[in-house]
Amino acid sequence: MMKIVGCKSFSNRKSSDCLILPFFQQEKKAVPAFSQKKLEGFFSKPLTLGDFTAKTAEILLFYENGQKEERVLLLGLGKASEFTQEVARTTAAAACLALRNKKIKSASYLIPELALIPKKDFLRGITEGLFLSNYAFDKFKVEDQRSSLLSVVSLIGAEPKDLPFLAHDQIVAEGVHMSRDLVNDNADNITPQKLAEVAKSLEKLSSKIKVRILHKKDLQKEKMGLLLAVGQGASVDPLLIIVEYRASSPSDHTVLVGKGLTYDTGGLSLKPSTSMDTMKSDMAGAAAVLGTMRVLALLDLPLCVTGVIPATENAIGSRSYKPGDVHRSYLGKTVEVMNTDAEGRLVLADALAYSVKKLKPSRIIDIATLTGAVSIALGEEIAGLFSNEESLVKKIEEASGRTGELLWRLPLHGDYSEQLKSDIADLKNIGNGKGGSILGALFLKEFVEKIPWAHIDFGSSAWLAKPKGYYTTHATGVGVRLFVEFLESISQKK
Ligand code: BES
Ligand code: MG
Ligand code: ZN
After folding, report:
1. Helix %, strand %, coil % for the chain, to 5?
2. In the structure, which protein residues have their CB atom closer than 6 angstroms to any atom of ligand 1?
3. pTM value surpassing 0.90
4. Residue 322 catalytic?
5. pLDDT tens-digit map of 104-162
6. Which of 3, 25, 27, 89 is a plausible cystine mate for 152, CB 3.0–4.6 Å?
């Protein structure tokens, strides 16, 4: 992880590879967001020539015989009136990526003085943007093709007292990176057993973490018929991974459930090959939960949280579970499997019912790449949120507003549950094909009973085809910051 340091004044700054100067846009022209008269010589040319107009995330990199830097990067922040913490994040990310492209290792960022938002907010935005965009997954590339990372950025104008969140946000960003690493890696490497190993390794970080694994024979004993059915075609066994973090009274207990499909072929209801090639990401919910548990352990937050991960592969083969067959869930309800590709809701149903019955939760939040339909509804940057509890929705939406992980609430429209009726079982696992994300959520609702519950369907935002802002290629790590922010907000209420 890169080091971010504060530096009190411009004249005190250390030498670095590049000086980053931020600008706002005013009447289509760039105006400096800082008041350093002596710097004007650095940027008068591109401004008078109109080559740089400070559009949001606009970059101009040039070379100077500066005393402490040989390069200057002009960074556009857009209009001052539209400047938010999220803009601070995305523009810092744009600068980070531009520097990484040139294999630059160190920079000094002259922080804006003329922003309309509180100093702490944009400082935090800048640091988050830098941490989150300074990530690469290139272990499969030859050494000289690997991307370069920034190693140190100094924030000019920030004193240590302005950066109280720095250590905290670095730990959170490491959680995000861990989650991205798990999603980006090969499905053949990130098996259910590997997820269990990663979970187990969290015990070393804190004595407040305890990990329990239910192996196949335990799942049989517990009668988790749906998780077992989904997993029966794979050469690796299904597991239920339970990560307990106990740092406060269990009277307030949040359970986070993450879909852990280490690969989703669709099973016998096979996916077309072009829909399959991102399906190593079908454990992104599990990765978000594991990343969050790591952050909790390292921040030592006063909370009681359990992560529950049904982990398995939805494989195709002679032992695969079969369309038309009926399986009995942990809760007891039977399910006619009309499409083996609607497997996420099956494994989550058992994990949710187990959580309700065994863990005495105050609330459950599940996160899952549950449907492709959610990206039809909301596009690839927004996740669907479903819930049976208004106050829970409010807190999750507040957390999302702060972290920039976009969510939009979708309805648990009860009438559609008719579609889940089966002629031969208690439920079937798909509806008529319309409102696919709602049907997935309604299916899950059958297994949570009256517990306050929220379901995040990020079949949209768990994975991006192309990098954007502080999201790097493929895995976004969405969920980790959201959960940490949410959990911190409820720990403060107590
Ligand atoms: N893992 C997929 C959902 C998914 C698809 C996530 C694309 C991200 C990108 C899930 O298991 C699935 O296959 N859902 C089906 C449900 C359908 C069969 C009712 C879907 O969305 O097509
Ligand atoms: Mg599927
Ligand atoms: Zn799936």
Report:
1. 40, 20, 40
2. 264, 282, 339, 341-344, 369, 371-373, 430, 436, 459
3. yes
4. no
5. 999 999 999 877 899 999 999 999 999 999 999 999 999 999 999 999 999 999 999 99
6. 3
